[in-house]
Amino acid sequence: MSLTPEQLAEIEAQRATPRPTLRAVSEGMEARLYKAHQVLDHGLIRVIDYMGDDAAIVQAARVSYGAGTKHVSNDEGLIRYLMRHWHSTPFEMCEVKFHVKLPVFVARQWIRHRTANVNEYSARYSILDREFYIPQPEQLAAQSTVNNQGRGEVLSGEESARVLEMLKRDAATSYDHYEQMLSQDGQQGLARELARMNLPMNIYTQWYWKVDLHNLFHFLRLRADSHAQYEIRIYAEEMCRIVADWVPLAFKAFEDYRLGGETLSGRAVAVLKRRLAGEVVTQEESGMSKGEWREFCEVWG
């Protein structure tokens, strides 16, 4: 992770000057504020600001649902009830702002989650750093033969070395040309907004990403899943650790009902009931497609 001495000094200065506040704070998140957590080879994620805690979720739920939640005896039980029944609004009362440094191709996946506020580092105004994501050999894999958007067998030593060499060489060459095209050092060259078009997708960008907890949970449900692409998944896994410190009760409910849970179609429920009654059900009798049946059997046997 490449933070400059100036950036590290700024982080230490921010953490060394706490300010009194009357607002609710999360002790777990206070310990996380401003700290940079390394992701991939040059990436990072850190919390810049946040609002709310577990109590804010409970407070919002009791205002909006009133007597309907009085039978829930404690805060944890209420939060689990809200998560179990897909009540989203109370979780929207909490927000967090991240500073993320990530490869451009990961950013293009990430930005598909449109329910957030984003401000990205501008390569029209500034010159991008010479930093590229180069995968570890164990992350270099061939195309999956059963999943059109996934990875299959890890590349052999010789093939892995060949691919790594191309990745490094292409990245270095493209950045050399980027520098040579820029209008600087007395050269007319190209404007920054034009010179950047030759850069590869594995160069690093940065942004501030602000999102409420409900939509953050949706992001994490998809991107922290074992089927998600590795490079975005480890950002999501680091964010899971941060959220677990911020709102531990809400994260436990999310982990149980979303990350560790399964959603069943009506046909799948019918098959499970028939199985529990002792009946043997085949794919042809289930009414499911081959793909849905395969996914069903991966979970239920």
TrEMBL record:
EC number: 2.1.1.148
Keywords from the UniProt entry: FAD, Flavoprotein, Methyltransferase, NADP, Nucleotide biosynthesis, Transferase
Catalytic site: 223
Alphabetized Pfam families for the sequence: Thy1 (PF02511)
Gene Ontology terms describing biological process: dTMP biosynthetic process; dTTP biosynthetic process; methylation
Residues holding FAD: 89, 112-114, 120, 212-214, 218
Associated pathway: Pyrimidine metabolism; dTTP biosynthesis
Cofactor(s) required, per the database record: FAD
Chain residues that bind dUMP: 109-112, 120-124, 196, 223
Catalyzed chemical reaction(s): dUMP + (6R)-5,10-methylene-5,6,7,8-tetrahydrofolate + NADPH + H(+) = dTMP + (6S)-5,6,7,8-tetrahydrofolate + NADP(+)
Enzyme class: transferase
Gene3D superfamilies the UniProt entry points to: 3.30.1360.170
GO molecular function: flavin adenine dinucleotide binding; NADPH binding; thymidylate synthase (FAD) activity; thymidylate synthase activity
Cofactor details (free text): Binds 4 FAD per tetramer. Each FAD binding site is formed by three monomers.
Family: Belongs to the thymidylate synthase ThyX family.
UniProt function note: Catalyzes the reductive methylation of 2'-deoxyuridine-5'-monophosphate (dUMP) to 2'-deoxythymidine-5'-monophosphate (dTMP) while utilizing 5,10-methylenetetrahydrofolate (mTHF) as the methyl donor, and NADPH and FADH(2) as the reductant.
HAMAP family per UniProt: ThyX
PANTHER family, sorted: FLAVIN-DEPENDENT THYMIDYLATE SYNTHASE
Assembly mode: Homotetramer.
Name assigned to this protein: Flavin-dependent thymidylate synthase
Organism encoding this protein: Stagnihabitans tardus
Annotated gene: thyX
